[in-house]
Design a protein that fits this description.
This protein is mainly beta. The chain has a single domain (2-238), classed as Porin (Beta Barrel), CATH 2.40.160. It has 4 helices and 11 strands. It has an 11-stranded antiparallel β-sheet with strand order 1-3-4-5-2-8-11-10-9-7-6. Helix 1 (19-27) runs antiparallel to helix 3.
């Protein structure tokens, strides 16, 4: 049995790990590091920081646990995530300037989308609403951002696909944390390239918000794609 500890740098809320990074790190324990395979990770409780957690890998998947309680589990998914429709780099650059988190952010130190993180420290992926002229219809609620990674890996790719899904919903008025994510990484991003990440909300059921996000390469190819389930929370309980 191996262990996994979430370095403090990879936080989402201040006292727990970023859900996408933790999910990707757990998926990395599966055979072939989940490259090409679609994997679903369900988060059962906030992953603690700087705390060794037990990883149990079986033929069915992997389980992450702490003090005898499950933190997350990973299983191979039956279906691949359905990609979000792409936008150009130029449109994504305009959209990120309108990122809603610049005005109000529930977790401004989040590794992925935190506005208080320095370049080279956090990913600073600021997925904002598309400009009017780029929307396919008045109801098109997609968000987008560019991303030029300074390092790469399975966990970082999963993390990059996390928050753009969340910001396609109303995270300002309805704060939420990641409850489940299904991701297919077709290839790892390269530090020499500039990518576009597009997210969209798909439906809401009670406290659950269903979203998706897709990472596109410079040639318009799908590098990785994810679908999420977010759970509405009181952010004060996570500070």
């Amino acid at each position: 049995m191996t262990t996994l500890a979430v370095p403090r740098r990879f936080n989402g809320p201040p006292r727990s790990g970023n859900g996408g990074w933790v999910a990707g790190a757990l998926a990395s324990t599966l055979p072939d590091q989940a490259i090409g395979q679609s994997v679903t990770v369900t988060l059962r409780q906030p992953p603690p920081l700087e705390t060794p957690m037990q990883v149990s890998v079986t033929a069915a998947g992997a389980t992450l646990s702490h003090d005898g309680r499950p933190v997350a589990d990973a299983v191979y998914a039956d279906l691949d995530p359905s990609p979000v429709a792409p936008v150009s780099v130029g449109v994504a650059a305009v959209a990120e300037a309108a990122f809603r988190g610049h005005g109000k952010h529930p977790f401004a130190r989040c590794f992925v989308c935190g506005t208080d993180r320095r370049p080279g420290d956090g990913l600073r992926i600021f997925a904002g609403p598309l400009p009017d002229e780029a929307r396919s219809s008045p109801d098109d609620g997609r968000v987008a951002s560019t991303w030029s990674p300074y390092e790469t890996g399975v966990a970082l790719t999963w993390a990059a696909l996390d928050c753009p899904g969340g910001w396609s919903s109303d995270l300002e008025g309805r704060p939420a944390v990641l409850g489940r994510i299904t991701t297919q990484v077709r290839r790892l991003p390269r530090t020499s390239e500039r990518y576009v990440i597009v997210g969209e909300e798909r439906r809401i059921e009670g406290r659950k918000t269903f979203t998706a996000a897709t990472l596109y390469g410079e040639g318009g190819d799908v590098v990785a794609s994810a679908e999420h389930v977010w759970i509405a929370i009181d952010p004060e309980e996570f500070r």
